[in-house]
Design goal:
Blueprint: H1 4-16, H2 34-37, E1 50-57, E2 64-70, E3 79-84, E4 95-102, E5 107-112, E6 119-125, E7 132-141, E8 146-155, H3 162-184, H4 188-198, H5 200-208, H6 238-255, H7 275-299, H8 304-325, H9 345-363, H10 387-406, H11 434-443, H12 455-458, H13 472-492, H14 497-519, H15 537-560, H16 570-574, H17 576-585, H18 602-625
Parallel strand pairs: 1-7
Antiparallel strand pairs: 1-4, 2-3, 2-5, 5-6, 7-8
Helix pairs in contact: 1-3, 3-18, 6-7, 6-15, 6-17, 6-18, 7-9, 7-13, 7-15, 8-9, 9-13, 10-13, 13-15, 14-15
Amino acid sequence: MAAVAAVAVALGALLLAPGLPRPPRERPPQGSGAEEQAVPLRRSPARMDQALLLVRNELPGPGLRLAGRSGACHQCLYQFLAFVPPSNGSERKPGTAAVMLDTQHPLTLLLNGSVADGELCKIQYHFGEFGNYSLVVKTLSTSTKSVSCDLVINEGPINSYLPILFAFLVYMGILATLIVGRLFMKIDPVRNWVYKKLNPRETDRLINSECGSPNAADSVSSDPAPWLWSSAPRQRLRSLDTFRGLSLIIMVFVNYGGGKYWFFKHESWNGLTVADLVFPWFVFIMGTSISLSLSSVLRRGSSKRKVLGKILWRSFLLILLGIVVVNPNYCLGPLSWDNLRIPGVLQRLGFTYLVVAALELLFTRAGGESGTLETPCPALRDILPYWPQWIFILMLEVIWLCLTFLLPVPGCPSGYLGPGGIGDFGNYANCTGGAAGYIDRLLLGDKHIYQHPSSNVIYQTTMPYDPEGILGTINTIFMAFLGLQAGKIILFYKDQHKQIMSRFFIWAIVMGIISAILTKCSKEEGFIPINKNLWSVSYVTTTSCFAFVLLLLIYYFVDVKRLWSGAPFFYPGMNSILVYIGHEVFENYFPFKWKMQDTQSHAEHLTQNLTATTLWVVISYLLYRKKIFWKI
């Protein structure tokens, strides 16, 4: 059940993915002679996400050039795939060439002859994984010199999405079993025995009083060390830990490979996949927790100086762990200054936490969260008391816009937001990321940023680019601040469930409208496209729109109606730092990874990745039972 959400999202992505429906198996027309010309090649491609194409050229002349372009590559140059020799007229033997094609996205194939002939044919098709195809090029009429290009399926592709469906059914079966078990828990003798064994009151007492834990109700404690433990148990908002755990588990799953499916990988440049959602959601809920935890601590009498010291120390530890422990450049050899990646996920989390928490601490106002402050506009009474924070955030956004669109980048147009490489018809090959990439390379150096960005697969970029770079951190702060606003709503409308959910819904609508304007409701043609690599403003508004909706739903089912306990996501949400660092450190160790029998099988990759993800859920549950909670 650990990755049931990831599998469910995968099914949704599968249903919505463009280009997935394929035409039926093509058969040569009777009597055309095509049955003899499309002789199947007696071998299949050996690599995952690829198909085999045999091009048969029956035309005389200098031969043909086959080029291709991925449907996911915006304004890209055609890439040379193969040279197809001409037909041998004396022996009536066609020229042939075999080429492996990508099956993750639709392809456009272009066949060119000599300069005089120019473009002979263009074919748009979504090839299937492990499929075997023939492209027969022949002359239809010698008088008109018309040419036909017939695509024939020799061996049908496999359905690579069946493993996802099977995994979904398995986890749904586990869920059904757990639901039946919960029904048994309604029997008094069974429930009393289980509660006695689990002793949940002691567990809740420990985790609810831990530093930084958000609470629905705050009570003043006489404990002289409120940052450590509190003697009075308090009600905890399980929806926040559930939201955090859901984001974390999907993040772990996609980091482990996501079964090697394209929609569990980061988008090459503009657009969104499942993998692009989870990090901003995690940042969002971090901002929500900041609001609730700081309010709780200050209410218990801690001085702002002491709280600021805790914030500085926690930020330092997060950044240090990101640089030293969770550093992808370990794969390049022993970690040294020469190949040390300075940016990273934990580094960005640490710096974002520092800015947002310090901002909240410095500008917090007594009575603001309880609604006792008078405001000229009642509809904005959960916003106006915090106008200094909003001015600061808006100033940061102005800085991001000015640097992104006005900073001169050598050899690149001003305001360039593209991937470089073969994108934009190859005109700006070394401009990957525009100002964002330029700032990182200038201030950090080429060797201290990420060396293999997602853009180098489709757009064939050669420049290093870091998706957790300096400029994008500004919008990460904006994302956390929106989460902070969600926390203020929870505090301001304390126990007023309808008001809380309505405010969440309003914020989701506002963020969605802003995204629609910025993107013009398109993937590539908007003013500011949705882009995870750049952490563009539209990326933040779009993912925050989803975050508000998701938090609304989880809050409703977990904390309002109590129809769902939040399990199993609640447990990793309680130990998020341990799970994240642990899954990175032990990624290549058994039982999280093992030698596979068939490395070109989605089913085996999916089994391994789901097993590893489930293990971390089990580990977090056992730690919860043992009252072990690692917080920084």
